[in-house]
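## Example pair
The file below holds two records. Each record gives the amino-acid sequence first, followed by its structure token line.
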Amino acid sequence: MSVKVLIPTPLQKLTNNQATVECAGTNISELLESLEQSCPGIKARLCDDQGELRRFVNFYVNNEDIRFLDGQKTPLSDGDEVSIIPAIAGG
């Protein structure tokens, strides 16, 4: 099973400057493990010490915010697209 992951520019240094990465996983948690295997160090940027997604990082599966789905347990299917969107603040 293959899932397309869209990588934000600040994290592309961990993906050899690739804007998209193909990974596997039946849910977001498994996808994060697969992403870490192919791009070491990226999980620490996305998750806290307990393995939970950081507050300032948003994940979308096929344009649906996983906070309104099943969070890290959100199921994935072959061909899904996962977008990683860092929160932007300013004033």
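Second record, same layout:
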Amino acid sequence: METKLARIARIAKERPKERITSLAGLIDKESLTERHNQLNGRKAAGVDQVTKDEYESNLENNIESLVEQMKRQAYKPQPVKRVYIPKPGTDDKRPLGILAYEDKLVQSVLSDILNAVYDGDFLDCSYGFRPNRGCHDALKAVNKIIQDKNIHYVVDADIRGFFDNMDHEWIMKFIDHRIADVNLRRLLVRFLKSGLMENGERHETLVGAPQGGQVSPILGNVYLHYALDLWFEKVIRKRFKGAAYMVRYADDSVFCFERKEEAQEFYRLQATSPGRVIFSPRKGEGPVEERGLAP
């Protein structure tokens, strides 16, 4: 599986304008069994109430049945179980999605496929949920920019409720840029539309990708690559005369500017750009303001 993914990653990077085909077939008996062996058996169960040990008791038949369903396009993800966990540093809680066991397996392999296709496209300013990158690397990048560049103004921004509010139509438009495999795109739509189960009630998922889902981080990176990273790189930096840099970790971003008037212009451009994303200042920095992002 690693060899196949490495080959896809190489092709995707060498041919940045090419749409990749024949990807869904990588979600096969071998890759699903490998992912089962790697999953943490102590994780909470989803709406199916199936644990790793229970699934393993009839592993070969379970995997073969899952693969057969996928080949017949009969596989349908189950609703995501929603729970709430404390948000560090605040009294708030954030929603977390817990997938059914087979959905965890499929999404985990699907996430690796999407990472192989897209990681070579992502800009160097993106650090969240990427191979060999982490939050400490993002902090080091911010420190280096501030120390080495002529920076005087820093904008620290968070996108409020990002994972719960990603637009499904835009997600699939961004996916279509690089993936031509109809079966893989159909599978992604089914995951996005699988619904949520909260307090025994099922809710439709018309927007968003639940935090906790294995595929949500890479979908978030794909979304913000097109909606934010490229916008800042191709529009903002070319428009401004002073130094301008950004560092993003998932939906948290730091924007660095040399000139005060250009930092202020950055806010104005957001407000007049197409698309809407909520930028939430850090606690104690004033009310939440609505800013626009170019899709």
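Notes on the second record: The longest strand covers residues 80-86. DSSP finds eleven helices and nine strands in the chain.
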